[in-house]
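hiii so um. not sure if this is the right channel but i have a protein structure encoded as tokens and i wanna go backwards to a sequence. like what aa goes where. can anyone help
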């Protein structure tokens, strides 16, 4: 085996093992311990972050900031990956903003000149537009880490102009129309709620000893199934009651039926919450139907008003009344 191939295989091996001894590597590669020591020194000079420990239980360990082995991409794959990352540039806040910018620069820098020329030619021909927002989202990284590690967080959350502390267990984060949202189990409400990340004034790890739930099977791809009727499907921005008291009426489920035009269906398809309620006909029209908590009526009233003539409320009557009340309030503000 050539030295260059051995170094490449060694880089992949130490990244996989994370912790190892010189003797183990020497036996695996069929070389002397002295050769492995020289190879490890060269890997360190190449940037692989190795840490050595002395003693009977010592050895080598790869630190968290390890360098991944080289990956061979085709030209089309390289261009696709570049623009997938390039599309995120419109977001001022990402859970890995600095890392994504650094990775994109490295990716571009080490591409062949003709591939860079091709990318430069495409840059002004394709874009992924995201609405510009003034909101700030400084806690995306801790929310994502908590969702992955199944941790409970304490957040200082503002809703309807009031702030209070919440204990939540994040399920994930997602961006929609330039805003970031965090579906999470709320220990105060006893169910899953969707939190606006820009309304969080603080987010820290919980130190009260509150035991996290086993939500490993719940993620953004199946949250609608878990959060179906009877399991806390209320929308956080519409049900936030600072005193934590809800009337029996608000806890009741009501039957929703809204007819949609083709344009109305397309608008609903852009909403993450709509997948469990949206039904589409062959001609492109459709309807929203399902049982929802009474506390969601004002949210749906605002959504229906935004659809204008593309939606027609069939039931419940309370939703139609809520739409009329909101329109009356809007008209009263027009001079």
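sure thing!! here u go:
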């Amino acid at each position: 085996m050539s030295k260059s191939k051995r170094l490449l295989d060694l880089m992949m091996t130490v990244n996989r093992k994370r912790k190892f001894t010189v003797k183990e590597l020497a036996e695996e590669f069929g070389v002397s311990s002295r050769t492995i020591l020289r190879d490890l020194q060269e890997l360190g000079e190449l940037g692989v972050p190795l840490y050595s420990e002395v003693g009977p239980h010592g050895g080598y360990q790869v630190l968290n900031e390890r360098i991944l082995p080289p990956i061979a991409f085709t030209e089309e794959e390289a261009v696709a990956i570049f623009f997938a990352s390039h599309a995120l540039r419109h977001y001022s806040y990402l859970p890995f903003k600095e890392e994504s910018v650094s990775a994109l620069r490295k990716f571009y820098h080490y591409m062949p000149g003709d591939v860079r020329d091709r990318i430069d030619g495409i840059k002004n021909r394709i874009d992924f537009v995201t609405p510009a927002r003034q909101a700030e989202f400084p806690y995306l990284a801790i929310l994502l880490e908590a969702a992955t590690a199944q941790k409970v967080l304490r957040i200082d959350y503002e809703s309807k102009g009031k702030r209070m502390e919440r204990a939540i267990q994040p399920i994930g984060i997602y961006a929609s129309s330039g805003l970031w949202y965090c579906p999470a189990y709320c220990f105060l409400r006893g169910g899953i709620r969707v939190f606006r990340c820009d309304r969080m004034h603080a987010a820290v790890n919980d130190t009260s000893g509150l035991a996290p739930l086993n939500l490993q099977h719940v993620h953004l791809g199946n949250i609608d199934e878990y959060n179906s009727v009877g399991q806390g499907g209320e929308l956080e921005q519409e049900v936030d009651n600072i005193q934590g008291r809800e009337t029996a009426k608000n806890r009741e489920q009501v039957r929703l039926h809204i007819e949609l035009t083709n344009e109305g269906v397309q608008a609903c398809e852009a909403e993450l919450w709509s997948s469990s309620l949206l039904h589409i006909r062959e001609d492109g029209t459709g309807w929203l139907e399902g049982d929802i908590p009474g506390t969601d009526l004002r949210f749906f009233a605002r959504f229906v008003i935004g659809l204008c003539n593309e939606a027609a409320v069939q039931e419940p009557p309370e939703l139609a009344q809520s739409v009329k009340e909101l329109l009356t309030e809007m008209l009263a503000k027009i001079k």
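oh and The chain has a mean pLDDT of 82.
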